[in-house]
Every structure is written in C-alpha cells, then in structure tokens.
Amino acid sequence: MKTRGRFTISSGLMGAALCGYLVWVLFPMVWVAYSSFKADAAIRTEPLSPPRWAEIDGAGYVRAWHEARFGDYVLNSVLVTGISVALILVLGSMAAYALSRFHHRLGRLVYTLFLAGLTMPAQLAMVPLFFELRALGLLDSRPGLILVYSANGLPFAVFILAGFFRSLPRSLYEAAIIDGCSEAGAFWRVMLPLARPGLITVAIFQFIGIWKEYFFAFMIVGGGDGGARTLPLGLANLAITAQYRGDYGMLFAGLVMVTLPILVVYLFLQRQLVSGITAGAVKG
Predict the structure, then answer these.
(1) How far apart are CA 45 and CA 148, in angstroms?
(2) Terminus of the chain with fewer CB atoms < 10 Å: N or C?
(3) Vertex 258: Cα angle to 147 and 56 (nearest 5)
(4) What percentage of the chain has pLDDT greater than the value 90?
(5) Coil, strand or helix: which one is 213?
(6) Does residue 60 have a pLDDT over 90?
(7) CATH 1.10.3720.10 occupies which residues in the chain?
(8) How many CA atoms lie within 13 A of 239 on its CB side?
C-alpha cells in the first residue's frame, strides 16, 4: 500500500519473510547436524529424514577424529587461534591506547598506516611473506602461522579499540596517576578494563576469522607433513577422502566439529558483541 510516497509492509508479511529466511539459513545446518548421526546407507536412501532413535550412529565422529586425524587438527586450531587472539588483544590494545592518548605527528602517521592495513588485501603480501617465513625457518610451523594471523588482525584491533580509548574520560587517567599509578599501571588497572566491550568485540571477530581461515593456512603449513595443519585444511582433506570413499557420515561429522565452536562462542557472547559494536559506533 502506498501512503504519501512511501511503501509500507504489513507486520505479518514481514514476519513471514523473516521466518522464511530463518528456515532458509537454519535448515542446511540442522540437516548436516542430524545427518552426521546417520549411517551412510540411510543418508543415501533417506537423505532428508532425521535418524530414528534406534538408528543413531556416531561412528562418523569416531572415524573423523581418528582416521582423518581431526584430533590433531583441533589441537592445532585451538593453539593457533587462542595464541593469535591473545596477541592481537594485548598488542592491539597497547598500540590503540598509545595512539589515542598521546598525540604526536608520528603517532598520526602510524595510525594512518594501521588504517591502510584494513584496505589492502592481505593476499597481496603473500609472496614476500612466504619467502620471509622461509628465510626465518617458520614455514610449516604453528609459530609462523600465529605471527601471520596476529599481524593481519592488528589493524582491525587498533581501529576498534582506539575509538573506545578516545571516548574514555581523561579524568580517570589523571586520577589514576594522582593515586600513584605509573603509565603502565593506569593502562592495565584502569583504562583497559573500561574497554572490555571493545576487547570482546575484537576477540569474537578475530576468533571466527582465524578459526575458519584457509588461505594463509594452506600457503604456510599446507605443504608440510601435516603436523601443523588446522581444521580448515583438515576439512578440505576430509571432504576429498569422504567423497572418494562415499563416507558422507564422516564428512558431516567433520563439518559439525568445525562449525560448533563458532556457534557456541557466538551464542554465549552475542549480547557483548552487539553492545560492543553499538558502543563503538556511538563512541567512535
């Protein structure tokens, strides 16, 4: 219906559209989840039906964990993602605090360079980065992958956290100095805890990005003996093996194990994520 030059949509139609979109998004995830508990024969004969209680089969998870070495891939991903996110938060918060609190001509240049890092595709630096890591002996290793992920995530962390630190009243910093805190003490004890929404926002985005990242992992550790490969690489190998063998239960189990940590992190921290993005938009 047209009213004064504007088109209005009824709430019922909008609700129906949103429900349809929800089903469109959730059904593939739910289908993969319950198909991972079905035997291969049931997946082929009844692909859309959920498994019956007496036919639930978790052998696909066992095969994915042991035969496809998903246990090693999970350990590598946990170590690489956890250490990388920790480094991004620590280094990014310190850099953002220094660049936002202490005004200097060189500081503005450094901040501009960080922002430029957000605009340049990281893949453009892959060739010199590959040779540099090879010269340092960091190819096919978790430390090399951690360094690349940390450096790639710093511009985003500095951009987000600098807005939070600029919004904090300077009187809090001055009160901490008067009470006897050093510069480091004022940062760690007063200013950093107040930027908690920004830290959570950065942590969630970086965790999701690193956990599912494939390109850097393939270029840096994909050519080795497999000891440092992460879950995306393991899932790609699993997909090739499962399709060759026709073992779709193992493939679906691998997909669930890769996706589940992301869903858990988002569900538990979605409120902090929304509040952090909103606060950053208002304060930045």
Answers:
(1) 45
(2) N
(3) 160
(4) 27
(5) coil
(6) no
(7) 62-283
(8) 9
**pTM (predicted TM-score):** 0.84
DSSP character string of 33-67: HHHTTS-HHHHHHSSSSPPPGGG---HHHHHHHHT
CA distance 125 to 258: 27
Give the pLDDT confidence of 68-108 residue by residue, as tens digits: 788 899 999 999 999 999 999 999 999 999 998 877 778 88
- The helix/strand/coil state of 195 is coil
Cα 275 to Cα 64, 86, 114, 202, 248, distances in angstroms: 38, 21, 24, 12, 40
The answer to whether 228 and 76 are in contact (CB under 8 A) is yes
Q: Which residue has the tokens 């993602």?
A: 81
The Cβ-side half-sphere exposure at 35, using a 13 Å CA radius, reads 24
Q: Which residues pair with 6 in a beta bridge?
A: 3
Domain 62-283 = CATH 3.40.50.150: no
**pLDDT tens-digit profile of 23-38?**
898 898 899 999 889 8
Q: Which of 214, 211, 216, 213 is nearest to 263 (CA)?
A: 211
Crossing angle of helices 105-119 and 142-167, in 10° steps, is: 120
Question: End-to-end alpha-carbon separation of the chain, Å?
Answer: 39
HSE (side-chain half, CA atoms, 13 Å) at 158? 26
User: What is the distance between the alpha carbons of residues 73 and 62, in angstroms, rounded to a whole number?
Assistant: 14
> At 7, phi and psi to the nearest 5?
-95, 130
- C-beta atoms surrounding 15 within 10 Å: 10
Nearest 5°: the CA angle 104, 195, 203 is 105
